[in-house]
Amino acid sequence: MNKPIIISKWIKRGFIPIALAATLVLGGCSSKKSGNASTEASRSSFRPDTATVETAEVQPHDFNENIQSTGTLVAKHHAQLRSLVAGKVMAVNVDIGDYVKKGAVLAQIRQVDYKLALEQASANMSRAKAQYDNAKQDYDRIQNLY
């Protein structure tokens, strides 16, 4: 009955793992010298696939904490900007990285061409309306004569 209690105390105190480690270390050490000369020669000579290592003393040295690197940034969200009409851009009201709100004017397109086109379309509509009025009068007059 007392033996399991003693063993559990040894396990708690770490005696058994230490004893196992000591047994393995001491068992690996051997004072027997082998009489084989080829074994001694192979231990003292370098293998062809090994490299010579040089050691150096560690010296304190200041270093730059800034790191410069090259990379690519990708935005989480993107938006496609398009104008409703084609034209020459006269002014850009924002710069890269500026915060904008919905409905803000980002760029202005040259309006002269569109104003001239609107005036031309208005003139054409007025002329077409006048031609319609003349054709309607002719139709009404011919209807009365018939």
Strand-helix topology:
Layout: H1 2-13, H2 15-28, H3 37-44, E1 89-92, E2 107-109, H4 112-145
Antiparallel strand pairs: 1-2
Descriptive report:
The chain has helices spanning 2-13, 15-28, 37-44, 112-145; strands at residues 89-92, 107-109. It is mainly alpha-helical and 146 residues long. It is rod-shaped. The model has no long low-confidence stretch (mean pLDDT 79).
Short description:
This protein has helices at residues 2-13, 15-28, 37-44, 112-145, and strands spanning 89-92, 107-109. By secondary structure, it is mainly alpha-helical. The N and C termini lie far apart (137 Å).
Largest sheet, spatial ordering of strands: 1-2
Q: What level of helicity do the residues show?
A: 40-55%
Q: What is the CA–CA distance across the termini?
A: 137 Å
Structural class, from helix and strand content? mainly alpha
**Overall pLDDT score:** 79
Tell me the series of helices and strands, N- to C-terminal.
HHHEEH
Principal-axes shape call: rod-shaped
User: Which stretches are poorly predicted, pLDDT < 50 over at least 5 residues?
Assistant: none
What's the main sheet like?
A: 2 strands, antiparallel
- Number of extended strands: 2
Q: Taking Cα atoms only, what radius of gyration do you get, to the nearest Å?
A: 48 Å
Q: Name the beta content range.
A: under 5%
